[in-house]
Fold these 2 entries.
Entry 1:
Amino acid sequence: MKTTAAAAASSKYGTGKEALLRAAVGVVAAKGLRGLTYRSVAEAAGVNNTLVAHHFGSRDALIAAALDWAAEQSISSSRLREAADLGQPFTEALLDLLLSEPELQVFQYEMILEARRRPELAASVSALYDNYIEALADGLRASGLTHNVQVVARTLFASLDGLVLQYLAGVDREEIAASLEEVHQVLLLRTGAAT
């Protein structure tokens, strides 16, 4: 029988493999990568730690899967493709990303820093960036941009990445919103869509 705490944790993260990934993201966001153990993930998800080992086989496989999952969730919840399509509410869509699940962003920054110390994570972090840039590139193409789309997408993402980090570090939401709007205006100029 589950304890009350385990039942609460289970309901917080859902069920199955996705619950373990969500729990892993939460653990790393709260404790850093050094706090990520089978036990800490299992405890957060409200399951036995053998289930974590069963699903992932190794801590590194859990880390890679959690990084992929976090990027997918972040891109999906931010509507990044739609935000880059310049007819959409750019600033609001990106602020929603920050406000809805900041632990996804914290987790990803933790992983980026850890990849500097552990080269075996570099491919996963590179794929993380590639996924974000491709989502932006898709939106830019949809908005009519045809020249240097990947370069523009990478430049845009560098701006967004820095603003997200600043937001997580405590910069005022209104300052971030103003900066996002400025990025949007530059994009409009770049595509010739400015009025």
Note: Residues 137 and 153 are 5 Å apart (CA to CA).
Entry 2:
Amino acid sequence: MFKSMNEIEMSTNQPIRTRPRMAIAVLIGGTVLLILGLMLSISVGAVNIPFQTVWDAIFHYNSSITDHGIIHEIRIPRALADILVGAGFAVAGAVMQGMTRNPMADSGILGINAGAIFMVAICFAFFPTLSYNWTILLSFVGAAMSMILVYGIGGLSRKGMTPIRLVLAGAAVSALFTALSEGIAIYSKLSQDLAFWFAGGTAGVTWAQLEMIAPWMIVGLVGALLLSRSITILSLGEEVAKGLGQQMTVVKMLGALVVLILAGVSVSIAGPIAFVGLVVPHFARFLVGVDYRWIIPCSAVLGGILLTVADIGARMINAPFESPIGALIAIVGVPFFLYVARKEGRNLS
């Protein structure tokens, strides 16, 4: 039988720092901010549309009004995609960090995004008539290949798998798949088409694509929530998890499947945006403690906010042109990664 967190603390002599009231406040406040960000995202663009028009288009849609058509067919799908992709990348990072006890785990840093984009490049170059569902499935395959390679390379050393070694393996695998993707793009004369995917962004997302990815995202997010208790126990260490009767192999396999679904779907629609899964779970953990039953839902909300704000900024910095979302997030993500890497290096030494 599952033990309560208080019983786990008593049996392991390890305090599990958690702030449920703060977590509830983050979820409520974050949801409000997410709604406001959604409205602002729909309003801002090459042509700014008043909030009143946005409101009317959502609740009193009139196909004969041009602004209503822009809002309904272009901006709402894009804004919803920002939320789903941000939540997907953030929760994937939270699950990876909890299962591996690696504070630098992120689907972009560990090369999983690069593997998914490699398969997307193959689809574009050699199978252009494939349906979008097949593209999503193949992006899962690419993410799985990358994950297997990274963990295989990272575990080759006699000293075992360390966070630093995993990051180095991820960098190598990411460089490999990125080079292969670019080579395919050049060979197939698709460099311009694939440049959008490499830069990262949700421009051009359609309702049809949202209908295809939404079920996958829901399955991944619900799966992460169902595993959250087990991930909390795993984050205490493998010896503790074994002592509590945790089926580590099953949990790790299910967790890896959740990461592949969330990262694969996110890459298939928005490209290999890195650092969302690194920064957001750390921020959520700082706010709500180390219980993944709170970290995962808070990461989903905060990840949606981050990508929504980044997308708004991408449209405003150099209007009417757009900047890559991935580049904006990297401005925050790279310094944070260096900070975590330096801290982890000190811990290892």
Note: The chain has one domain: 19-348.
